[in-house]
Amino acid sequence: MTSAARRTGMAGMAAAAAAMLVAAVVGWVAWRNVAGQEPVQPRGAGPESTADAALAQRGAYLARAGNCQGCHTRRGGAPNAGGRAIATPFGAVYSSNLTPDDDTGLGRWSASEFWRAMHHGRSRDGRLLVPAFPYPNFTRITREDSDALFAWLRTLPPVREPQRAHELRFPYNLQPALAVWRALYFTPGVFVPEPGRSAAYNRGSYLVNGIAHCMACHAPRNALGATREGPGEAAAAQGSLVSAQNWYAPSLSSADEAGVAHWNGDEVVALLRTGVAPRGWVMGPMAEVVFRSTQHLNERDLRAIAEYLRALPQVAARATVPQRGRMGEQSGRRTEAFAAGAKVYEKHCAACHGGRGEGADGYLALAGNRAVTMASPHNVIKAIRDGGFAPTTLGNPQPMGMPPFHGVLGDEEIAAVASFIRQAWGHGAAPVQALDVLRAR
Ligand code: HEC
Ligand code: HEC
Ligand code: HEC
Q1: Contact 117/105 with Cβ under 8 angstroms?
Q2: What is the pLDDT of residue 236?
Q3: H or E element that contains 86
Q4: Does residue 381 line the site of ligand 3, with CB under 6 A?
Q5: Which residue of 24, 161, 169, 392 pairs with 81 in a disulfide if CB–CB is 3.0 to 4.6 A?
């Protein structure tokens, strides 16, 4: 054989090896996307227990626990008829119509096709669904709960509302890209109770990790938007930026953030039922969770969630921003900034939050408040810029509100007052820069 022929032969072998590797990867991706799927039964082929009123009632409860309506209703649209844009780092996606309309909703779906969507993230026509639909969490729910949800959805009035096309950027708009993502990061599987744990703990884990999809916000995500599954649940509960909203969902495994291991059960139940608790008020996306979802849960389920959250292993919070040093102490410039922040505070904030941050007239205290001193400054900036109300709940029917300050204070002033409250009253959190405020828009 000449050396040229040998070279072509080698090249041929390398090409064949590469082709085999590609085939193996494609095969693995394809297998990961169908593994464990039973064949679906079309509507009418199997028994459908959807006419059962008790089942539908249970479904209505689960739909609240899962806040289906929050994502599946556009502003001004019919409840659950879809069309709401959900911002993701990869572009906007639009929720689907869940009402039983034959052409644009779930009218022609069977319970088994619905189960495949909830458990495997596939639409009726086999299309892979984007994980902005939290099926990586919903996959944990049981078939019975899926059937109950479906039975409830079938009792809704059918609404005609065609699916809007997603606006995902290339390559995230491609089904093969989604197939690869799923192969890497999505494993379908119903919740398995942990042996040796109480029934309440396991119920709490089922709700938090499954239907209530708390971890869809509170678990950290990698650059491809997958929640990181680390060693144990502690890693899965480490806190994360809520995609494209600039709210930080703090870690449920850290006392410095949203961990509640050091709270008592009543305090956790109060937070989830009324939105206000002795040691924390909810705001932003969490206020919506309480408003639409957790305030409607029964006492037993709230106690179960509290038991599970209080038992989560605690880890030190990740420092999400480098400590830039305390501003009140060092150079003269920093002392000036501290004084400027104090002035803004005195003028615009003290009437409600108290001269020493202690909280006036039932308003919440900022002194000793972990939401103020958390490493991530995102929520403090959001609160000051956009203001907000605690959620309206049965237990707190007339919540107190905070006005937005973005029209009143400039970025510099917001940064100064945010830095002030993070460093006054014995706090030692890093200051906030005007650039951080600009980025939060
Ligand atoms: C965080 C937002 C969010 C929540 C909460 C949510 N969904 Fe969705 N859902 C979506 C989005 C976005 C889609 C569209 C996915 C796609 O087209 O790839 C979707 C799609 C679906 C589909 C597939 C419909 C189809 O035509 O293929 C079903 C079924 C569904 N959701 C049911 C539910 C149920 C039941 C709940 C409550 C238990 C729920 N969803 C809660 C965002 C959400
Ligand atoms: C849509 C995203 C999202 C979902 C879903 C979500 N959270 Fe949150 N959560 C947040 C954000 C953002 C904050 C920070 C703002 C605040 O403190 O209210 C937060 C704060 C919290 C806090 C700390 C409150 C305080 O004042 O110390 C707890 C506890 C909590 N969440 C528990 C839960 C539980 C339990 C669930 C599921 C039932 C859940 N969250 C679902 C986004 C979310
Ligand atoms: C009219 C009364 C009022 C004024 C004035 C006011 N706040 Fe608030 N503030 C509130 C209320 C009420 C909340 C809780 C809002 C919620 O739950 O969404 C709050 C929440 C906050 C939070 C979030 C704390 C947490 O635990 O989640 C911060 C930070 C904050 N305020 C800072 C400020 C600063 C800084 C100013 C001045 C620039 C200010 N507030 C002015 C009433 C006020």
Answers
A1: no
A2: 46
A3: strand 85-88
A4: no
A5: 161
**N residues, the chain:** 441
Is any ligand 3 atom within 6 A of the Cβ of residue 415?
no
Q: Which two tokens stand for residue 272?
A: 């989830």
Q: Mean pLDDT for the chain?
A: 89
Burial of 105 (0-12, 13-18, 19+ CB in 10 A): buried
293-351 pLDDT, tens digit each: 999 999 999 999 999 999 998 886 544 443 444 554 444 556 888 999 999 999 999 99
What structural domains and CATH numbers belong to the chain? 53-185 (no CATH), 199-311 (no CATH), 332-439 (1.10.760.10)
Please, what's the b/e burial string for 343-358 (b: 16 or more CB within 10 A of its CB; e: otherwise)?
A: ebbeebbeebbbeebe
Please tell me the distance between residue 402's alpha carbon and the centre of ligand 3 in angstroms.
5
* Ligand 2 pocket list (CB less than 6 A): 208, 212-214, 216-218, 242, 247, 249-250, 258, 260, 271, 280-286, 289, 294, 305, 309, 371, 379
Dihedral in degrees, nearest 10, Cα atoms 98, 100, 102, 105: -10
Say which amino acid occupies 311.
Answer: A
Residue whose Cα lies nearest atom 28 of ligand 1: it is 117
Q: How many CA atoms lie within 13 A of 84 on its CB side?
A: 19
Cα separation, 166 vs 271, whole angstroms: 35
Q: pLDDT tens across 104-119, in order?
A: 999 999 999 999 999 9
Pocket test for ligand 1, best of 96, 128, 245 (most atoms within 8 A of CB): 96
Distance CA 41, CA 411 (A): 57
Q: State the Cα–Cα distance between residues 402 and 413, nearest whole angstrom.
A: 17
Q: Is 186 in the pocket of ligand 1 (CB under 6 A)?
A: no
